[in-house]
Amino acid sequence: MGVRLMVVDDHRLLAEALASALKLRGHRVLAAAAPAAGAAELVISRAPEVCLLGTATPAEPGIFDPVVRIKRERPQVAVLVLGPVPSPRGIAAAFAAGASGYVRHDERIEGVERAIMKARAGEAAVAPALLQGAFGELLNPAAQPDDEGQRLLQMLTPREVEVLVRVADGEDTRLIAAGMGIAPSTARTHVQRVLMKLGVGSRLEAAALAARTGLLDRAGASGG
Asked: What keywords were assigned to this record (predicted)?
């Protein structure tokens, strides 16, 4: 028995191709709309059994707000997120918003159909390989090459890290020297080296940069 479906995706060609393929398999596809921004209103007004909701950025904050609204106003509608290979955070965010499952954009039509049938039956619809990949990443997280805080921390010596923490706490040169048991001139030299390595012109800028990048949190973790 066919399922009453909606396909909503920013990529119109993808949405229309998927809708056509599902129609050929005996499903009733109510609409294939491009703008994700209007997805919630469209789904709420048409009330399908299952909605395939496309997203290109599953880890972006607020990306699943339409799912939250759909489930609030039409709780009987099962929402399947259609997206790229997600991070564990992306999968978690989708389910936290109320989605019934997650389907990759490059999934075969048979896999999409299986997910649809599971979602309509009230079951969680996520491919085992996708879950295995997510759990693998959670257990063995990959290094983040774009982690600015970690990069900056590696540029500083342990003593310079301590100086930066004290600068961020508002200590002047005299207090830094007394707290570290070094001469004020040595403390001043350490501060200047920290500023130079971080590429900033003042102690205030150094403290702000350290806070913004999470460098202070990492320094605390590595030191304690």
From this structure: DNA-binding, Transcription, Transcription regulation
Q: What's the pLDDT tens digit per position in 212-223? A: 787 877 776 555
Evaluate if residue 144 carries a pLDDT over 90: no
pLDDT digits (tens, 9 = 90+) for 28-75: 998 777 666 688 898 999 999 999 998 877 767 788 899 999 999 999
SS (H, E, C) the chain: CCCEEEEECCCHHHHHHHHHHHHHCCCEEEEEECCHHHHHHHHHHHCCCEEEEECCCCCCCCCCHHHHHHHHHCCCCEEEEEECCCCHHHHHHHHHHCCCEEEECCCCHHHHHHHHHHHHCCCCEECHHHHHHHHHHHHCCCCCCCCHHHHHHHHCCHHHHHHHHHHHCCCCHHHHHHHHCCCHHHHHHHHHHHHHHHCCCCHHHHHHHHHHHCHHHHHHHHHC
Give how far the C-alpha of residue 144 lies from the chain's centroid of Cα atoms, to the nearest Å: 13
State how far Cα 49 lies from the chain centre. Answer: 28
Cα 104–110–114 angle (5° rounding)?
A: 80
What does pTM read for this prediction? Answer: 0.59
Q: Could you give the dihedral angle defined by the CA atoms of residues 5, 11, 16 and 22, in that order, rounded to the nearest 10 degrees?
A: -50
Region at 142 (left for phi over 0; alpha for psi -120 to 50; beta for the rest): beta
Query: Is beta strand 50-54 parallel, antiparallel or unpaired with respect to 101-104?
Result: unpaired
Residues in the chain: 224
> Among all chains, which residue has been given the structure tokens 């989605």?
99
151-182 pLDDT, tens digit per residue, is 788 888 989 999 999 998 889 999 999 999 99
